[in-house]
Amino acid sequence: MRAACAALGGVLAGFCALAVAELVAAVVRPEAGPVTAVGGAVIDRTPPALKDFAVRNFGTNDKLVLELGILAILALFAVAVGLLTLRHRIAGSAAVLVFGAVGAVAAVGRPEGRISDALPSVVGAVVAAGLLYFLAGRLSPAAAPSSGEGAAGGFDRRGFVLAASAAAVASAGAGLLGRRLTSAVQAGAEASRRDLKLPVPESPARAVPAGADLEIRGLSPFVTPSKDFYRVDTALVVPRVDAGAWRLRIHGKGVTRPVTLGLQDLMRRPAVERDITLTCVSNEVGGPYVGNARWLGVHLADLLREAGVRPPSKGGPADQLVARSVDGMTIGTPVEDVMDGRDALLAFGMNGEPLPFTHGFPVRMVVPGLYGYVSACKWIKDIELTTFDAYDAYWVKRTWARRAPIKTQARIDTPRPFASPKAGTVPVAGVAWAQHRGITRVEVRVDDGPWHPAKLATQDTRDTWRQWVWEWAATPGSHTLEVRATDGTGALQTGSRVGTVPDGATGRHSVVVDVS
Known about the structure:
Layout: H1 2-28, H2 34-44, H3 48-58, H4 62-87, H5 89-109, H6 119-138, H7 157-194, E1 247-252, E2 259-262, H8 263-267, E3 272-279, E4 290-299, H9 300-306, E5 320-325, E6 330-334, H10 335-338, E7 345-350, E8 353-354, E9 364-366, E10 380-386, E11 409-414, E12 424-433, E13 439-446, E14 452-453, E15 455-456, E16 466-474, E17 477-487, E18 510-515
Parallel strand pairs: 1-10
Antiparallel strand pairs: 1-2, 3-4, 4-7, 5-6, 5-10, 7-8, 7-9, 11-12, 12-16, 13-14, 13-17, 15-16, 17-18
Helix pairs in contact: 1-4, 1-6, 1-7, 2-4, 2-5, 4-5, 5-6, 6-7
């Protein structure tokens, strides 16, 4: 019984540490909470292969899985220190401070870390250590009443239950108060997004041409709704940035006129609206991490030119643009690509609304033709002009390539893998993409047979994906369907299968179906 109570005391101390830390983090900043800080540190040190495994198997739930894993480890640690207090009350209680040290080091060591970020973990651990020491005292035989109810088991059971209950209630209250304070802080940012009025674009996107969306059941829609757009990033807590307080700084090598501007400054510039398909480098062949949206923003190249920046082809000294996010992420983009005439945007609108917080509100980068990890900085706050030789951005330090143009890919959306269509005419349909080159041909084959040309949907622009369909005369039995695409340069999609590291997956998507 004493051992069970000791373990419970450890768990209560751990809960107390987290609750108090969350309350303090509400005052400091939500990203300084110990679970968020430790989770971020784990992400920073995760090998690319393991990161790809998490994205592939857990999708957008990868962060939830990580947080649950951290909490599970913390619970085991809490049980262990609780049991330790049975023999060594001071040592067991002091061990809780290890939790604080780990959280503090992780918080301060993050790319955007500040000394004040250590406070939530430290304060939470100190309070929890005191609580565990007190609860352990209720488990001592010396604390047992000399007679009467509560003395059973050789310790003050009643005193322990009362103290544990009070601690649980107080911790829950602290955690709830912390959440409410955090929500109050975030409410300002949410109001700033809600009240933001987007400008009318001076250069609107052309209407999606008739026939660009084949409207086939099971086929991805031409425009991906914002709520369904993929999200892959390292932020355990989605930044809530107040639009009124947001600032962007442009500086660095070759910048003769440094720039600092706010969101209203940005929106007073000529607004540009474009349909652009984005793709994550972690997208496996046939994977879901690709989507097409209508973006509203301003041309980044215009801002760079006004700051005095010249691309390398015109004698500029900087060949890399390093974008920094409020969450500490750094993304390196070739200056030449941003300034070669493509619609590289600082976007503040998505599908007719201000950017969702999960997709970078108030401002993010969108560069057609490049994988997101070298172009699509969300929650952007700083742009530094430098060189690839002088600086490696976040993912490049983790063995990914410095330059990563998007590779030609095609995906079968319908029929789904292991589907059981009926014999007869079966529409085989999907999407193909080769941003900034476009798609000119898609072909499908069955069971390694001859390639058949698919019907292409009307092309919107070379920066968007393209739907396709092939009417298959399906016969009973198990069949393998395979697809390949040709891009606007005439290059045929390779059949060589490689993984996502270091610069994107290649290979042809195939599905197996059983025709009845």
